[in-house]
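Input structure tokens:
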């Protein structure tokens, strides 16, 4: 009723050259919606900085390539109308932690706030705030699909905090019906499974673990995910904290996980729906 407008778009990989000056009529129609909004949110995958003077390097672990845009494209993104970007995704540290920090600095220099990353786990969890004529807006961002090296960490005694992103760890578990579980249990026993946590092969009455893969007794074959409880609590706490300080709060999660595990399955995993509703 008060005219407040929050706009959200999807993933940015690129642009790799300024697009706004090209004056594409169809693209301009999209940008007009973004510019008219009080806040416009996108998910910035890839990295944005100038290689000249960059002191880092490509990371050995990446989110599916090393997409990199020159710093000038950050100003182009701002010209599109985007005012806040999530950096919590699987491309955050393609160029190492140095690349993440450089990208954050480039976006902020262009007038774009960053959510979902920071100098520590607490900073990555915390909302990014934007002051608008309609009031204060907070954006909390996290990712359940991420490279392990990108996860932020807090201080521990004399150990410094680790920069990175806000991660929600979700471990996939394959559900198998009783008949298949019995056969798998017999195979595991024949292979010498034990119940020690450091064994590559372990079993209980209702679960099996082969390396990193977990199987659990279910009523039917399927897939589920076990969400780390501390991650869940911290994300919900960040949303509650933001709600106390802002007039409007948005939460965004970067997730490749689907109901079946297939990248072509457009149905989200059940834990994604549950977390978003919470």
């Amino acid at each position: 009723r008060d005219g407040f407008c929050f706009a959200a778009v999807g993933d940015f990989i690129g642009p790799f050259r300024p697009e706004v000056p090209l004056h594409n009529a169809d693209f301009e129609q999209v940008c007009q919606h973004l510019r008219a909004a009080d806040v416009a949110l996108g998910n910035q995958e890839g990295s944005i900085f100038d290689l000249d003077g960059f002191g880092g390097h490509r990371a050995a672990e990446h989110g599916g390539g090393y997409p990199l845009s020159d710093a000038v494209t950050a100003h182009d993104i701002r010209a599109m109308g985007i005012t806040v970007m999530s950096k919590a995704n699987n491309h955050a540290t393609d160029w190492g932690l140095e690349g993440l920090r450089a990208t954050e600095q480039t976006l902020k220099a262009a007038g774009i706030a960053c959510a979902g990353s920071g100098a520590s786990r607490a900073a990555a969890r915390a909302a990014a705030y934007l002051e608008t004529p309609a009031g204060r807006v907070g954006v909390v961002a996290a990712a359940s699909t991420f490279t392990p090296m990108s996860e932020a960490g807090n201080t521990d005694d004399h150990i410094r905090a680790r920069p990175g992103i806000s991660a929600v760890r979700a471990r996939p578990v394959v559900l198998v019906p009783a008949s298949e579980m019995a056969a798998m249990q017999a195979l595991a026993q024949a292979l010498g499974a034990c119940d020690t946590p450091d064994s590559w092969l372990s079993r209980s009455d209702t679960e099996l673990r082969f390396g990193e893969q977990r199987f659990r007794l279910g009523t039917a074959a399927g897939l589920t995910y076990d969400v780390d409880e501390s991650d869940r609590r911290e994300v919900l706490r960040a949303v509650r904290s933001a709600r106390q300080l802002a007039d409007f709060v948005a939460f965004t999660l970067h997730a490749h996980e689907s109901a079946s595990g297939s990248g072509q399955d457009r149905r989200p995993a059940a834990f994604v729906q549950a977390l978003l509703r919470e």
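The mean pLDDT is 94. The first strand starts at residue 6 and ends at 13.
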